[in-house]
Write a structure and sequence with these properties.
Elements (H helix, E strand, L loop, with lengths): L27 H10 L2 H6 L2 H10 L4 E4 L6 H8 L3 E6 L2 H13 L4 H4 L2 E4 L5 H4 L1 H4 L3 E6 L15 H13 E12 L1 H7 L15 E10 L2 E14 L2 E9 L4 H11 L5 E6 L2 E2 L8 E7 L4
Parallel strand pairs: 1-2, 1-4, 2-3, 4-5
Antiparallel strand pairs: 5-11, 6-7, 7-8, 9-10, 9-11
EC number: 2.1.1.20
GO biological process, one term: sarcosine metabolic process
Subunit structure: Homotetramer.
């Protein structure tokens, strides 16, 4: 893949003048994203018990979902009785969450559900009015964090974003963050179309491309083809930064210093129970004061 490839043209300005780009700004991916997700009940059952149990055993009540998207995970947590603040950089994705909140506004939990646009690189300052001493948990799931690309070659913006996440977690609280198994993607050159998050019954194909700069993987581009029914096929392209597990864990440890607990799971299972997980999930606790 050369620098002239259109992979370098997916960084639309979106709603952010700078910082995190909105790759969903043209509306194509957002329009069919819930088709790609598949049955929501099946999707959430894949990890509802894990997530809810992990949150409740740590006394979590108030959650910041920094990658709300169309609202699937936030809706699940609101239904479970958590107080949820949801943000996303994509107004095209958020409109689906806003529609669900409006449709269920007569339910107290949904009427109190806070949804806003925000930029990870300025997150702490942007949501000062919502902090109230910090959140019991901050979550960034669904491979969302990998949308933040490495524009300088040293991951400074990824580190800045995670520091903002950490600042939003109150002492003793949790950060839950995940990423695809990019180690395996780079080894095999393929990306599974179905996994713990995406289980659509529609025909789905994902073409995987990896861009190397100075012999280092710098960008993974996924070209999605999703059959939307009646012979129609929707195509869109998304680009991700290929996080390596060991490096990502080191970054988390450097930011969450003196953490009493840092657990890594594969597809929401202990790592010794899954050989090649599609996703790695990190659950890290912030040290108490």
């Amino acid at each position: 893949m050369s620098k002239g490839d259109t992979v370098f043209q997916v960084r639309s300005d979106g709603i952010s003048a700078e910082g995190v780009r909105d790759q969903y700004a043209d509306g194509k991916a957002a329009k069919v994203w819930e088709i790609f997700i598949g049955d929501k009940k099946s999707r959430t059952e894949n990890y509802r018990n894990f997530l809810v149990e992990k949150l409740r055993e740590n006394g979590v009540r108030r959650i910041l979902d920094v990658a709300c998207g169309t609202g699937v995970d936030s809706i699940m947590l609101v239904e479970e009785g958590f107080e949820v603040v949801s943000i996303d950089a994509s107004d095209k994705m958020l409109k689906y969450a806003l529609k669900e909140r409006w449709n269920r506004r007569k339910e107290a939990n949904f009427d109190n559900w806070v949804i806003e646009e925000a930029n990870w690189l300025t997150l702490y300052d942007d949501i000062q009015h919502l902090l109230n001493g910090g959140f019991d948990a901050v979550m960034c799931l669904g491979n969302s964090f990998a949308h933040l690309l490495d524009n300088y070659g040293d991951q400074r913006e990824q580190i800045q974003a995670i520091r903002n996440f950490e600042r939003c977690v109150k002492p003793g609280g949790l950060l839950l963050i995940d990423h695809r198994n990019y180690d395996n993607i780079m080894n095999t050159g393929a990306t599974p179309a179905k996994c713990i998050y995406y289980n659509s019954s529609h025909t789905t194909d994902i073409k995987t491309s990896v861009l190397y700069i100075a012999s280092k993987p710098a960008l993974v581009t996924l070209d999605y083809q999703i059959s939307t029914g009646k012979g129609e096929v929707s195509e869109f392209r998304l680009s991700y930064y290929p996080h390596k597990l060991q490096v990502f864990e080191e970054i988390l440890r450097s930011i969450f210093r003196d953490t009493p607990s840092h657990e890594t799971y594969g597809d929401f299972k202990p790592l010794d129970r899954v050989t090649h997980p599609a996703f790695y999930i990190h659950v890290i606790k912030k040290a108490s004061v």
